[in-house]
């Protein structure tokens, strides 16, 4: 008999008319390339939600960037029917809501809200690689939320798979017998039906008060060009009905419910959503800030007394200046940011000007991946050419006179008498094969890290916990970690507060002229190394000019490093005869276009490429975020 | 002639020119370039349009080449007449290659005669041919002189055996003084071409070459920095690391040395890469390129310019011959240079000349940029004041392209 419910059975699991006992809400926790989307694809197929011929890889990942990088930025929720035999041997229909979670550290808050919408979590781990730090962090989050965790090893079809070894590791982490760890292949579909059965069997049904005023938690909020903001909710108590007025409990704002429904896998309007159900709301609002992740939705007429817990405002951790390469694109950049903001409650920005780069914006991000995604979307979807300055964290500077300055841009770092500087710190978790313990300790030490503890996950894998300044992670920590562990280490971190540190601002001067875009705040002991590195880098990047150009690094008025770009001696084509004239003129005309991509600082022409190359410390990009 | 043809508009099949070319024609000299696309060997650095096979098929053999080229001469005379241009005698002819002297002197003289028949040679016309030192004899040079040639330009390149070897030049440097003497005995004006910056060439090697050239007593020297073009054998050797190119600073030092030695010997620069013992020995044909005069380029891949229209012929000798045989223009493409482009060309070409760019021809914006160039030592302040002409200093000549970009406001 087919596990896909018959028409009669399906009537029992119609949205707004499904008994909570027949609902199962779960998510999949997995590392970036451990095959979550492929497994989700198989589930959609097996439950008949998507026909095989309509299937495309990673069905749920909507944005191009997501599909290309193989990562999920925005979570989605899909309702899937599934039947399991009960004790009497009759098929019982169930409605499964699969809530897709973002996998990256930058989106921990969004992950925590997605988890809060579920009763169970599939812990999906690549059978050839074992668990990674981010997965571990999300697993801890799931355990804190009292989710039923179902450990699953994926990609068992791979020749390099070691299911026995990693089953033991998972059992060690989650508890239970290694034999109970499910082994599946998202690619071939092997074991996926069993997994669906196991979800029905193990994940607790949602519990809520159907008669209470409605309380639904927003776990995602997406801006759609045609529909306005689409809000994803999990109903905890009561029910939501079409055309009624709803209220957002954090802002008290009320909206009319224009549409309510479930995703299966396209949006389908329903007669409402009841206790335990997961679906979407459309109210016609145009800005995701009016429908914030974590907020509680209630009936406007009969509001709940208490919101659901766990709501917080997203706080930017990393800042970067974004500048259009062509200054006339500034209004286009502003419009583009305004549009992206509709879909991204965590994005915030303020206009700023740079002597070197002109007009732009200082933009706050949740983290490096967030930065990279926004930048890429600006360039791809809005066709903008941008320079982004090296990312930095936020500093709180207390002056001798006790005034406090909040620094989001290194060039604003004050001179004069400073009493103390505070910088954000994170709690970092690193997982790696045990042979790299020494290398990791050495790296963390050089990055001002503080070892908090260390545990063996298995005989040869270790979990190390450090407190580290966020600034060090933003700089080049991840690349260094990867290179020192031959790519085996994984990293996760979350902010834990601030610390006082001995920090200075290093300025870079070209021909005596300060280039604001290159200023950096670094630890006093690293100022010299930074100055030497940056001046050497610029020497290679800035073309020789018709005069000598000194490049200096300075702390205050003290020069700590210096390089000189010697004057150019030859710039002439030796031959220019009859046949060369057209070609040479066309070359000149092309160079005129090139001039547009130059910024002139003092008398020095600096190509945009030099800014880009100098500012993108090879380190700045979290390379694991990209699928290679 | 460099290999890749520029992008341009389609050229009409009959080669007809727009009527605009007539304007100002009386003030422009008219010259003829004759391309000979053959060599006995191809040098590793060479990217010119030249072929070593004697038989290229389709009527494009060395033997029949002169006859084919003569067809284009006839076509050229017709096109210029049809465009309504006045009959202008040819003031300069330049036969280049390739190696023109791989053809028998009779062929070269025959082509020259065809030019004379079609347009008429001006009194005192300058008629130059390029030549390889190992492809001439006293007799062949005498035959050229008797047939109307007045000038020969030898590809000497270097006097240093290891440099010649790297360049894959086959001639014996010891032969240079002889060929120069033979040419002068035949009554020909002589120029020597030199190349600096060959991989492995030291500053002393270069000094040896310049001094050897001067020792022959020539009245004209061209010195070119070696440029390794994509698609040449040498480019492959450089990419593989078999040859190491000298850097631009090394080339600058060699240019400065050449300029010093040549100036000392009485040869003054009249163009960035050209020196002559007085204006009477300068190459008038090349000056015509830089001054924006008219010329018709005969031969595969040859470029022409008439009254603001530039065009270029198909590259391969076989396609070239086929076009002419079916009565079509061999032009592959052309461009009608608009006013802005023409102004930029004038600046880019005149700046290279010792006679300089007349300040009056600069725009106001361009003139405001001159002072900075004088201050940086790139433009000579004296002719600026006395003659209102912008003339480059030695340092400026080495940075001529930068000067053009700065003047035109394209940035350095």
UniProtKB/TrEMBL annotation, chain A:
Location, primary (coarse class): membrane
UniProt keyword terms in alphabetical order: Cell membrane, Elongation factor, GTP-binding, Hydrolase, Membrane, Nucleotide-binding, Protein biosynthesis
EC top class named in words: hydrolase
Catalytic activity as recorded in UniProt: GTP + H2O = GDP + phosphate + H(+)
InterPro entries membership: EF-4, EFG_III/V, EFG_V-like, EFTu-like_2, G_TR_CS, LepA_C_sf, LepA_CTD, LepA_IV
A Pfam family reported for this protein in Swiss-Prot or TrEMBL: EFG_C
Places the protein is found: Cell membrane
UniProt-listed SUPFAM superfamilies: EF-G C-terminal domain-like, P-loop containing nucleoside triphosphate hydrolases, Translation proteins
Origin superkingdom: Bacteria
Keyword Nucleotide-binding attached: yes
Gene Ontology biological process terms from the UniProt entry: positive regulation of translation
Binding annotation for GTP: 33-38, 154-157
EC number: 3.6.5.n1
Record-stated family: Belongs to the TRAFAC class translation factor GTPase superfamily. Classic translation factor GTPase family. LepA subfamily. Belongs to the GTP-binding elongation factor family. LepA subfamily.
Matching PANTHER family: TRANSLATION FACTOR GUF1 HOMOLOG, CHLOROPLASTIC, TRANSLATION FACTOR GUF1-RELATED
NCBIfam families per record: lepA, small_GTP
Cited function: Required for accurate and efficient protein synthesis under certain stress conditions. May act as a fidelity factor of the translation reaction, by catalyzing a one-codon backward translocation of tRNAs on improperly translocated ribosomes. Back-translocation proceeds from a post-translocation (POST) complex to a pre-translocation (PRE) complex, thus giving elongation factor G a second chance to translocate the tRNAs correctly. Binds to ribosomes in a GTP-dependent manner.
Name of the protein in question: Elongation factor 4
Taxonomic lineage: Bacteria, Bacillati, Actinomycetota, Actinomycetes, Micrococcales
This protein's encoding gene: lepA
Automatic annotation (TrEMBL), chain B:
Keywords: 4Fe-4S, Chaperone, Cytoplasm, Heme, Iron, Iron-sulfur, Metal-binding, S-adenosyl-L-methionine
GO MF entry, a single one: 4 iron, 4 sulfur cluster binding
GO CC terms, sorted: cytoplasm
GO biological process: porphyrin-containing compound biosynthetic process
Family matches, as CDD domains: Radical_SAM
Coiled coil feature spans: none
Top-rank taxon, per record: Bacteria
Similarity comment: Belongs to the anaerobic coproporphyrinogen-III oxidase family. HemW subfamily.
Name of the protein in its database record: Heme chaperone HemW
Species for this entry: Cellulomonas persica
Organism classification: Bacteria, Bacillati, Actinomycetota, Actinomycetes, Micrococcales
């Amino acid at each position: 008999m087919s596990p896909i419910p018959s028409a009669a059975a399906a009537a029992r699991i119609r949205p707004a008319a499904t008994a909570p006992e027949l609902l199962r809400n779960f998510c999949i926790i997995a590392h970036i390339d451990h095959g979550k989307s492929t497994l989700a694809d198989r589930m959609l197929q097996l439950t008949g939600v998507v026909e095989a011929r309509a299937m495309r890889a990673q069905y749920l990942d909507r944005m191009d960037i997501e599909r290309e990088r193989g990562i999920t930025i925005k979570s989605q929720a899909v309702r899937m029917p599934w039947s399991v035999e009960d004790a009497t041997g009759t098929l019982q229909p169930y409605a499964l809501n699969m809530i897709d979670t973002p996998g990256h550290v930058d989106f921990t808050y969004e992950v925590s809200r997605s988890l809060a919408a579920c009763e169970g979590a599939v812990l999906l781990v690549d059978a050839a690689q074992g668990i990674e730090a981010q997965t571990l962090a999300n697993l801890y989050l799931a355990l804190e939320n009292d989710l039923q965790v179902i450990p699953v090893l994926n990609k068992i079809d791979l020749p390099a798979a070691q299911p026995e070894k990693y089953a033991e590791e998972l059992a060690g982490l989650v508890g239970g017998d290694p034999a109970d760890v499910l082994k599946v292949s998202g690619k071939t579909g092997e074991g996926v039906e069993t997994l669906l059965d196991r979800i029905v069997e193990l994940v607790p049904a949602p519990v809520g008060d159907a008669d209470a005023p409605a309380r639904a938690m927003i776990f995602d909020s997406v801006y759609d060009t045609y529909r306005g903001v689409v809000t994803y909710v999990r109903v905890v108590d009561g029910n939501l009905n079409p055309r009624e007025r709803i209220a957002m409990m954090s802002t008290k704002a009320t909206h009319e419910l224009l549409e309510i429904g479930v995703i299966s896998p396209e949006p389908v309007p329903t007669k409402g959503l009841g206790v335990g159900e997961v679906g979407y709301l459309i109210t016609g609002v145009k800005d995701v800030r009016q429908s914030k992740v974590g907020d509680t939705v209630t009936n406007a007429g009969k509001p709940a007394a208490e919101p659901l817990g766990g709501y917080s405002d997203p706080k930017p951790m990393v800042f970067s200046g974004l500048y259009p390469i062509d200054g006339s694109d500034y209004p286009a950049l502003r419009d583009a940011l305004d549009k992206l903001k509709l879909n991204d409650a965590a994005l915030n920005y303020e206009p700023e000007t740079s002597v070197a780069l002109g007009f732009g914006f200082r933009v706050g991000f949740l983290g490096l991946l967030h930065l990279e995604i926004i930048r890429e979307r600006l360039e791809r979807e809005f066709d903008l050419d941008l320079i982004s300055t090296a990312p930095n964290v936020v500093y709180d500077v207390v002056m001798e006179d006790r005034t406090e300055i909040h620094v989001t841009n290194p060039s604003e770092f004050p001179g004069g008498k400073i009493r103390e500087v505070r910088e954000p710190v994170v709690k970092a978790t690193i997982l790696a094969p045990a042979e790299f313990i020494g290398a990791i300790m050495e790296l963390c030490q050089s990055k001002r890290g503080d070892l908090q503890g260390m545990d063996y996950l298995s005989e040869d894998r270790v979990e190390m916990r450090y407190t580290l300044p966020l600034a060090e992670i933003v700089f080049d920590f991840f690349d260094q970690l990867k290179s020192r562990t031959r790519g085996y280490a994984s990293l996760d971190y979350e902010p834990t507060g601030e610390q006082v540190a001995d920090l200075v601002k290093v300025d870079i001067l070209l021909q005596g002229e300060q280039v604001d875009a290159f200023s950096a705040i670094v630890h006093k002991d690293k100022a010299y190394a930074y100055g030497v590195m940056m001046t050497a880098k610029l020497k290679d990047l800035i073309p020789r000019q018709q005069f000598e150009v000194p490049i200096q690094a300075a702390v205050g008025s003290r020069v700590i490093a210096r390089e000189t770009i010697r004057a150019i001696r030859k710039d002439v084509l030796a031959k220019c005869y009859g046949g060369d004239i057209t070609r040479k003129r066309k070359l000149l005309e092309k160079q005129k276009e090139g001039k547009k991509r130059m910024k002139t600082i003092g008398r020095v022409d600096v190509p945009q490429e030099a800014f880009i190359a100098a500012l993108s410390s090879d380190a700045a990009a979290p390379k694991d975020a990209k699928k290679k | 002639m460099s290999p890749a043809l520029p992008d341009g508009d389609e050229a009409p099949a009959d080669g007809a020119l727009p009527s605009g070319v007539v304007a100002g024609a009386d003030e422009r000299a008219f010259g003829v370039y004759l391309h000979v696309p053959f060599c006995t060997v191809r040098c590793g650095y060479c990217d010119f349009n030249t072929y070593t096979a004697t038989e290229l098929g389709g009527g494009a053999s060395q033997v029949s080449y002169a006859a084919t080229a003569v067809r284009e001469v006839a076509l050229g005379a017709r096109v210029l007449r049809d465009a309504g241009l006045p009959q202008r005698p040819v003031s300069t002819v330049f036969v280049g290659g390739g190696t023109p002297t791989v053809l028998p002197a009779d062929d070269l003289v025959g082509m020259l005669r065809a030019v004379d028949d079609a347009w008429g040679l001006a009194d005192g016309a300058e008629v130059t041919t390029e030549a390889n030192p190992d492809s001439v004899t006293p007799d062949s040079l005498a035959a050229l002189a008797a047939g109307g040639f007045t000038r020969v330009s030898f590809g000497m390149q270097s006097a240093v055996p290891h440099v010649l070897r790297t360049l894959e030049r086959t001639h014996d440097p010891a032969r240079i003084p002889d060929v120069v003497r033979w040419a002068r005995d035949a009554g020909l004006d002589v120029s020597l071409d030199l190349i600096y910056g060959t991989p492995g060439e030291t500053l002393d090697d270069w000094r040896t070459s310049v001094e050897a050239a001067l020792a022959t007593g020539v009245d004209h020297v061209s010195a070119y920095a070696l440029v390794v073009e994509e698609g040449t054998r040498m480019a492959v050797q450089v990419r593989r690391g078999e040859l190491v190119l000298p850097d631009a600073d090394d080339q600058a030092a060699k240019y400065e040395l050449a300029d010093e030695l040549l100036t000392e010997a009485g040869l003054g620069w009249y163009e960035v890469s050209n020196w002559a013992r007085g204006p009477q020995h300068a190459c008038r044909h090349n000056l015509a390129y830089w001054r924006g005069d008219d010329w018709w380029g005969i031969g595969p891949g040859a470029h022409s310019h008439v009254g603001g229209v530039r065009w270029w012929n198909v590259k391969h000798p076989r396609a070239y011959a086929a076009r002419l045989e079916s009565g079509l223009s061999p032009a592959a493409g052309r461009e009608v240079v608009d006013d802005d482009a023409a102004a930029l060309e004038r600046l880019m070409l005149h700046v290279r000349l010792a006679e300089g760019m007349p300040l009056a021809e600069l725009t106001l914006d361009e003139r405001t940029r001159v002072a900075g160039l004088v201050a940086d030592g790139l433009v000579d302040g004296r002719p600026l004041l006395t003659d209102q002409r912008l003339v480059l200093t030695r340092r400026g000549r080495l940075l001529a392209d930068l000067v053009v970009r700065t003047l035109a406001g394209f940035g350095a």
